[in-house]
Design brief:
alpha/beta, single chain, Nucleotidyltransferase, domain 5, 5-stranded mixed β-sheet, 407 residues, 16 strands, DNA binding, Arc Repressor Mutant, subunit A
């Protein structure tokens, strides 16, 4: 890239982010929104078109004077890859710049029966398949962000403690770099933080002050305030699952007793709802299939399933009330397996929230359920990988091949 492009990259970033956050705009509207001259806005749009990052998208309607051509993000040129390591699966997703899914892979596994190296091997193979899918459609991967369940030493990209994985001091970043030799940046992040990033939709004012609670075998999440993820002093914020809510209760994978995830995690639900030999507890069964079966049993009125759901919903509400008293978010977004069972869980969660929050009407905090299913963390990972392009669009090489409208 020439030096002139580098100088202009902050304004290129402003234009690209405005189109992402606010949707298609005319050049004149972009100039007004960003305090630029029309000539400057047109020049910036032309450069982004050359990079294959924006395109013309019809004509602006309802304006005064001669209608202008709308400009929108053209996501086809680049993709971010997100990946996740969890107790029951490894997974990947590739999103293009406009947020569309280009490729997606998931492999069910039981991490307790595998070594950390074996799990990293399986994830690396999924990443290679996803990378190949991206390149097959003519796009370029610009980064990979891996979410992992547990306490992450971000500076060293080492999973310091993964209670439910049974991992301690595993160099996830170095291990994947050695396996992949990727030509693009690779980062590692806590999966709950990535799920929170995925839920904090840019441009949606209702999603800028939220608490995301992500439930699988463990329970974690993230805090988004003013549209920004709060990581805490050393980056360990969001380990909600290890709040003590039942002193003298069950022992947690972390070694302590009575943690929230011992009564609200998927393992707690399955223990209450099914015998050890019940197929719904088979680790080889996908999480989506497990949740579908639990919903089916509940809808048929199975008393054991209903009782288990009520028990877990009550505990989810207890923890949500504690967090609401401390943080007063605009919304608590329940993700992971909580979202898959939202219809069954909502009444008791809201009842416990109302009972447990000191402020009137739960302090204005509403309960929402994620629509991303079990893909929240990998989507957040892909979004983080794509931030490099929004920060500096000149990282992308011009895409002459896109002029004809094909990949």
């Amino acid at each position: 890239m020439q030096g002139g492009s580098r100088v202009r990259s902050p304004n290129l970033s402003l234009v690209l982010r405005q189109l992402r956050d606010q949707g298609p705009r005319s050049r004149a509207r972009l100039a007004t929104d960003l305090g630029l001259t029309r000539s400057a806005a047109s020049t910036l749009v032309a450069e982004l078109e050359e990079l294959g990052l924006v395109r013309t998208a019809g004509v602006e309607r309802g304006g005064v004077g001669r209608p202008g051509s709308l400009v929108e993000i053209d996501g086809r040129a680049v993709c971010g890859i997100g990946a996740e390591i969890n107790v029951n699966h490894v997974s990947t997703i590739a999103l293009d710049l406009s947020g569309q899914v280009v490729a997606e892979h998931r492999l069910a596994l039981d991490a307790h029966r595998l070594t950390a190296d074996e799990v990293l091997d399986k994830l690396a193979e999924l990443v290679r398949r996803t990378d190949a899918d991206v390149r097959t459609v003519g796009a370029t991967p610009v980064g990979l962000t891996v979410g992992v369940a547990g306490l992450l030493d971000s500076a060293r990209e080492v999973l310091a403690v993964g209670p439910n994985l049974g991992w301690r001091d595993v160099p996830v970043g170095a291990g994947l770099r050695a396996r992949l030799g990727a030509a693009y940046p690779l980062g590692v992040e806590n999966e709950g933080n990535l799920a929170a990033i995925a839920e904090a939709v840019p441009g949606d004012a209702t999603r800028q002050d939220i608490l995301v609670i992500f439930g699988e075998v463990g329970v974690g999440g993230g805090i988004v305030a003013g549209g920004r993820l709060l990581r805490g002093h050393q980056g360990y914020a969001g380990e909600f699952g290890h709040m003590i809510v039942e002193p003298g209760g069950r022992r947690c994978g972390c070694g302590r007793v009575g943690c929230w995830e011992t009564v609200a995690g998927l393992r707690a639900l399955l223990d209450a709802a099914a015998d050890p030999d019940d197929p719904v507890r088979d680790p080889a069964l996908s999480l989506d299939d497990r949740i579908a079966e639990i919903n089916r049993r509940a809808d048929l009125g199975d008393t054991r399933t209903r009782a288990a759901l009520d028990q877990v919903a009550g505990w989810i509400g207890v923890g949500a009330a504690l967090l609401t008293n401390a943080l007063n978010p605009a919304a608590i977004v329940l993700s992971g397996y909580f979202a898959g069972l939202g219809q069954q869980l909502r009444p008791l969660i809201e009842e416990q929230l109302q009972a447990g929050v000191l402020a009137p009407y739960s302090g204005g905090t509403r309960v929402e359920f994620s629509t991303l299913g079990f893909t929240a963390a990998v989507r957040g990972g892909a979004a983080v990988a794509l931030e490099a392009v929004f920060d500096d669009p000149t990282l992308v090489a011009p895409r002459a091949a896109l002029v004809g409208g094909t990949r």
